[in-house]
Amino acid sequence: MNKADKATITKKAFVEKLSERTGVDAKTVNSVFMSTLDLITEELKDGNKLEFRGTFILGTKVQPSRQAQNPKTLEKVEIPERRVVYFKKGDRLKHLD
């Protein structure tokens, strides 16, 4: 499958598919889905790692501060330390390579 064949699934389409699979109305599915995303975001903000065994791991790591250079002016710029989210796939997703 090449890049042009891949589709982007919107949140609305995802919720509709999930609603059809579970038999639960779309409004309830949307509410649960948004609550799940909010909880995942809160946990990552608190620095916790989320592990869904066999599927994936989400966590954060600190990217240290560094010096960069403005390509136009060649001026040195300090980039502050920041936390970034990482994703590590589990066994269920490894076959996608």
Write a structural description.
The chain is an alpha+beta fold. The protein has two domains: 1-46; 47-97, Irregular (HU Protein, Chain A). It contains three helices and five strands; from the N terminus they run H-H-E-E-E-E-E-H. It has helices at residues 11-22, 26-45, 91-94; strands spanning 50-52, 56-63, 66-69, 76-79, 82-89. A three-stranded antiparallel beta sheet has the order 1-2-5. Helix 1 (11-22) packs across helix 2 (26-45). The protein starts with 10 loop residues before the first helix and ends with a helix.
Summarize the structure.
The chain is of the alpha+beta class and 97 residues long. The protein has three helices and five strands; from the N terminus they run H-H-E-E-E-E-E-H.
Approximate strand percentage: 25-35%
Number of helices: 3
CA-based gyration radius: 19 Å
Going by CATH, the architecture of the largest domain would be: Irregular
Write the layout of secondary structure elements.
Layout: H1 11-22, H2 26-45, E1 50-52, E2 56-63, E3 66-69, E4 76-79, E5 82-89, H3 91-94
Antiparallel strand pairs: 1-2, 2-5, 3-4
Helix pairs in contact: 1-2
Key descriptive features of the protein:
three-stranded antiparallel β-sheet; 5 strands; 97 residues; HU Protein, Chain A; single chain; 37% helix; two-stranded antiparallel sheet; alpha+beta; elongated; 2 domains
